[in-house]
Structures are given as C-alpha cells and as structure tokens.
Amino acid sequence: MQNLINNISFQGARINILATADNHGNVLKMPIWLKTVENNAKDIFEKSNEESTRNFFAIVGDWFINPSKQGYLTKPKLTNGDLQNLTMLKTIEMLRGIVTNVAQGAAYFETLFTAGNHCLDAGDGFLLNVMKKNPMKSLITNVNLNKSPAVVRAMEESDNIVKSAVYSIPDDKNPNFLHKVLFLGVTIPSMDFYNPGLLKGMTFYDNCNEKDTNLDESKLQGTVASVKKEVENFKKHNPKGAVILLSHTGGKISELICKKVPQINLVLNGHDHKNSQTNVGKTSVNSLGKDNEMIKALNLEFDDNGNIVKTSMTPYFTAVTLADGIEKHPFQLFLNDFLEKDMHPLVSLKASSGVRELTYGNELRYSNSYLMNYLTSAIKSVVKESIDSDLFTVGIQSSIVRGGLKDGANNLDVMKVFDGVSEDLSNLKIGTVKGKELAGLIVENVLYNLKAPTRSTIIHWSDIQVNRSMIADIKNGNSDADYIEAIKVRNKKSGEFEPINPDKDYKMLINEKYLVKDDIEWAKKIRSRFVSIDKTYDQLFKTYLTKNKYKINITPLTTEQRII
User: Fold this and answer.
1) Same structural domain for residues 308 and 259?
2) Which pairing describes strands 109-114 and 137-139: parallel, antiparallel, or unpaired?
3) For residue range 506-564, what is the model confidence (pLDDT) as tens digits?
4) What 8-state DSSP symbol labels residue 147?
5) Percentage with pLDDT > 70 across the chain
6) Distance between CA atoms of 307 and 502, rounded to whole angstroms?
7) Cα(97)–Cα(119) distance, rounded to whole angstroms?
8) How deeply is 337 buried, as exposed, middle or buried, from its count of CB atoms within 10 A (0-12, 13-18, 19+)?
9) Residue 278 lies in a domain
10) How deeply is 501 buried, as exposed, middle or buried, from its count of CB atoms within 10 A (0-12, 13-18, 19+)?
11) Distance CA 13, CA 50 (A)
12) Alpha helices, DSSP H only, in 344-424?
C-alpha cells in the first residue's frame, strides 16, 4: 500500500486559459460567445477555487478592426474603436464574474493581449492608449523599442505594456514553492504591407511590405531573436518553467518560431483564421479560428517537482450553443440599450432562386461569391450614375469585406460589410488600363491567391469572369493556353462574357491600398494613371442602399458565376 501511494502523481499547480483571436469587432456575436463560456465555465476554469490555480483570458490579436470608422445611428460620434473597446472592457468584467461564480468566491483572473494587424488599422496612437488604460497585460515581444518612441513613452506611463510577463503559481502542497510561467506576444511584423504609413511611433522587428506567403526565416530573424532572448533569460532562472506564446502571425510563422525556440510549450495562434492544432517537436500550436465562431480552453498542470505533466485543449463552438434566452443576456441588453437605433431591422432582402441571404465566409477569399457579385455591381451602378458613366469594372479585394447581408439586417450588420480596410487607406481611385494590363493584374492576383487561398485574397470584379481553375492548370503545366484566355469581359450589348480585348481601354475602380503596394507588380505599373474620387466602398454602398430604401433584390447578375 505504501508503494502505491508513493507512485500516485498529485497535481502541484494548474493554469487555465480561455483563448480567442480574430474577433474582428463582431460585437453582435458577443452574447452567444459569452453564453458559450458560461455553459462550459466549470470545465474551462476548473479548480478555480484553489490557490494553486491561475486563470487567464488570452486575446491573440484583431479584437479591433478599422477603429477610426464612424457611421452609427444612435451615437454618430462613436467610432468602431470606441465600441470595440467598450465591449472588450465589458467582456473582461463579465469573465471575471464568471470565474468568481465558478470558484464560489474570489479567484485569480488575468487578461493577456497581443496586437493583431487590424488592431493597428487606425495607427499606433489608438491602440497604445487602449493598452495603457485597459485592465490587461499587453505583450509586445517583437516591438523594436529602439525605433518605437511612442511605445517607450507609453511603457513609462503604464506598467500594463511589457515585452513579456512572468507569473508565479504556488504549489498546492508547498505554498513556498512557486511554479513559473512566461507569456510572450508576437504580432505579424509586416506593417508596411497591412497598414502602410500609419504607424508613427511603433516599429516591429522585420517590418516590411510583403505578403505573409513571402515571409521566410531569412526575413524573420529579428522576430525570432526577440522571442529567443526572452525565453533564454527566463529559462536561465526557471529551467522547468512553462513558456506560452501568443502569436498573431499565422501557423506558418508560429511553427517557424517554434523550430528556432523549442523551449516554447504552447502557442496560441491567430491571424490564419483556422481551427487547427499541430505539433512542432514538443510544442503544441493551436490556431483559434475567427469572428467569435469558437473559443479554446487550454490548461497546463505541474507536478510537485515543477515538471509539466499534462496539457490539454478543448474547443467550444458558438454555433452549437443553445440560444434560448439569449435576448435577455446582459450583454444583449447592453447592446440594445447602448445602440438602440443601430439594432433595429433595416434591410429587406427579397429571396430569389433559393438565395435567402448574401453569405460571408472564408470561401469568398478564393471562390465565386454572390455577396461579392452584389457588392461590385452595386458600387459600379452608383459610380456610373454619379461620377463617371464610362466606368467598366469595379474591383474589390475579398479581405476588405467582413460581413454578409440577410433579411432583417441592422445598421451594425451594414457597417460590418466593408470593415476590412483602414479608413485611412480606403479611398477609391479610378483609371484606364489596356485589356492586356487588366488581364495581367488579374492573373497576378490569382497566382498569389493560389499560393495561400485564405491569406492572399482574390479580387472580385463586376462584369469580369475569371477562370481561376484554368490559371491554376496553366501554372501547373496542365494547360497550353495563355493566361489572358482565362479572363472574359461582359459584352455591353449582349450581356454575355467574351474574351478580353488586349488593346482595348477599360476604365476600372479600385481602392488605394491595392495601388500603393510595391510588392504588386501591376500596381506599380498603373498607379500613376489613377485619380481619387474621394469616396470609399462603404460610402458608395450606403448611397446605393439608401437609394433603394435598403431593399436587396437578388438578380441573375448576383447569382452568376464570375469566378470559375
């Protein structure tokens, strides 16, 4: 009996982590998100009543999106950033209450935050103010402080902003023995690609103007070195301590970091919008989905000797949460009261051909989309009528669109549609290109999209049909056709798609963010011919909806196949 008792492994300490990423300002989903946490709180925050348990809420980037955008009906001066920050504060407050309820008394609870690229859509001023004031630790491991004067000033004013954070957890049997855990936070560094010119006092190691797919080890040396330095300093004094990385970089870069810094135990990964789990050596990399569709609960357990003896991960999906009574949820009541006019049904959608809503989802980043067909056609009609009657086509990058439309959609839903680009970079420009140039830029975009369909997003066009499958076949050597044969344009008289004329002039509209990118070859070639119309997609779309009294009719143009 004595030998059996000696062989039993008792818990020494426990870490519970509720993790989320890429919420993208989806405040309307917060009631069901919080209800999902409430329904599973006893498992997520297990043993919260014990002194040897520490509970964390980890926000792995892109809680915010397009913070400077306005357009609310109830409070016209309110910005996206104002509302999204208020919802963050209320979420932290409610989660603290949930943990207290599970523990049936006081319990440890800490919020950790790492910035995503969209958190910086309004520049660094807004975000630094949030990080200084909010009750959370903001982790900025790969910020180069030597080139970030605004960050240095913010750190002097607040101890909430840190390169990394170490937490101590008392052992359950020997409170004088402390288990240690290091948290770090890394943001995708290519801010000159995502928000060119907007960051004035914050610089990330390896900042560049390149797509994620182009970032390899040679271009991420500063990022890796910043993580490695923090981990090595921690491990020098805490060889058995746990290391957890909040990484808003996507799975590819997170895995690269783990290969170079194998002492990391767990990565909470954002930016790739996936629900996935991979292992790099002994490191677990967990991607956290997007748009409040899921949460992940992770925990680590130490034994009495300080060794990590157990790690586990459980996903919880908001879509399967019973919504009974959600209309009376405290968060829903807050939204109803705070944004009264914005919560009222606004859109009337006439169902046609079985289409009951214009759906937003990851698939619009690489395939045909009725939503994108509708948006490009709507924008074109407004521009032709009020700005330039010679306009032939409107191009919209799918990453700019962040929400769909259905019958009964409210103003928050409408505001969400064009929420994926900073207001400072959303100005639209119009210019004329030859058919061979238009085909060239379309093919270049598709080739990038084929490399990473959910990250290098495709451009959708009004009155243009793109044979993505043919371009893929040509690229892979399975077709002898020329790339230009994969592009067809609408004949104005017949309405049918026909081969593009390489020598004909086509007037096109696209946003400034596309044209300023130096890593896009065709953007550099044509940008000098484009002039601003001092409008955004969002403004033009609202003009279209207002003119049509917010009635959406599904037509054959909406349901046609424009990406094959």
Assistant:
1) yes
2) parallel
3) 999 999 988 988 888 999 999 999 999 999 999 999 999 999 999 999 999 999 999 99
4) G
5) 98
6) 67
7) 26
8) exposed
9) yes
10) middle
11) 9
12) 370-386, 411-417
How far apart CA 500 and CA 484 sit, in angstroms, is: 8
Do 377 and 517 belong to one domain?
A: yes
Which runs of consecutive H residues, i.e. helices, occur in 297-388?
330-338, 370-386
Q: Rounded to two decimals, what is the model's pTM?
A: 0.89
Is 2 contained in some domain? no
Q: What pairs with residue 70 in β-bridges?
A: 79
Report the distance separating Cα 485 and Cα 482, nearest Å: 6
> Hunting for tokens 């982590």 — which residue is that?
17
Q: Which residue has the higher pLDDT, 175 or 360?
A: 360
In angstroms, how far is CA 486 from the centroid of its own chain?
Answer: 31
My answer on whether 141 and 215 are in the same domain is yes
CATH number at residue 446: 3.90.780.10
**Calpha distance 83→416 (Å, rounded):** 13
CATH number for the domain that contains residue 121: 3.60.21.10
70: Cβ contacts below 8 Å, ≥ 6 apart: 76, 77, 78, 79, 80
DSSP state of 105: S
Task: Name 322's Cβ contacts closer than 8 Å, sequence gap at least 6.
Answer: 39
* Together in a domain, 440 and 491: yes
Decide which of 267, 287, 320 is a domain's last residue: 320
Q: Are residues 158 and 201 in the same domain?
A: yes
**Residue among 10, 13, 7, 54 at smallest CA distance from 176:** 13
End-to-end CA separation in angstroms for the chain = 70
What whole-number distance in Å separates Cα of residue 474 and Cα of residue 487? 13
Find residue 511's DSSP bridge partners.
Answer: 428
**179-219 confidence digits (pLDDT tens):** 999 999 999 999 999 998 899 999 999 999 888 888 999 99
What is the dihedral sign for C-alpha 333, 337, 339, 344?
positive
Q: What is the DSSP letter of 72?
A: -
Domain range holding 268? Answer: 12-320
Structure tokens at 310: 């157990």
Question: Same structural domain for residues 433 and 528?
Answer: yes
**Number of domains composing the chain:** 2
Residue 184: inside a domain, yes or no? yes
Cα separation, 203 vs 183, in Å, equals 21
Assess if residue 363 is contained within a domain.
yes
Could you tell me if 266 and 370 lie in one domain? no
Q: How far apart are CA 267 and CA 251, in angstroms?
A: 10
Domain boundary among 320, 335, 369: 320
Q: What local confidence, expressed as pLDDT, does residue 9 receive?
A: 46
Give dist(CA 290, CA 267) in Å, integer. Answer: 16
Per the CB < 8 A criterion, the answer to whether 307 and 26 are in contact is no
> What's the pLDDT tens digit per position in 376-392?
999 999 999 999 999 99
Q: What is the pLDDT of residues 4-19, one digit of tens each?
A: 333 344 579 999 999 9
- What pLDDT sits at residue 50? 94
If 0-12 CB within 10 Å is exposed, 13-18 middle and 19+ buried, where does residue 447 land?
A: middle
Angle, CA of 472, 478 and 479, to the nearest 5°: 85
What angle is formed at CA 431 by the lines to CA 428 and CA 434, rounded to 5 degrees?
A: 140
Pair 287, 370 in one domain: no
Separation CA 224–CA 515 (nearest Å):
31
Contact between residue 18 and residue 37 where contact means Cβ atoms under 8 Å apart: yes
